Amino acid sequence: MRLYLGGQMRGLPDFGHALFDEAEQALTSLGHEVFSPARYDREHEVKGEDIRLGIAADMAWILAHSQGMVAIDNWPNSLGAKSEIQLHHAVGLPVWELTDFVTWGINAPKIPALIPATNVLEWRGFRMDVKA
Question: CB–CB of 19/6 below 8 Å?
């Protein structure tokens, strides 16, 4: 399975690359093809200040190749990881937490959408029911 690996990078020493490398090794040892943003950033010399460049590459890979996402357990601390989770959900792809996925594979519990589906649109105090 082609998996995207997500998690917190900003604010961590060496952008959390050690966590990503360990997670990537665990997933590849199970036979999966893994896109790791940490590996990509090193191979393409993307620096922390080039965040737009890194995120653009990540999103492009997700849309072109991903069959699902595995999130390192620190993902709730990361705006980037949350956006990657939402993108996976937006295009109908599953998302799992790393610990669960390593234990149960594709049968692991999935991370639900972070923005619940609703029929109500609210913006700047304006509220409207939206019918499909």
Answer: no
What would the pLDDT profile of 34-49 be if each residue is shown by its tens digit?
Answer: 999 999 988 988 776 6
Top-confidence residue, 13 or 92: 92
Whether residue 54 has pLDDT greater than 90? no
Residues of 86-120 as b/e, b for ≥16 C-beta within 10 angstroms? ebbbeeebbbbbbebbbeeeeebebbeeeeeeeee
All domains of the chain, ordered by start, with CATH? Answer: 2-129 (3.40.50.10400)
The C-alpha atoms of residue 51 and residue 121 are separated, in whole angstroms, by: 31
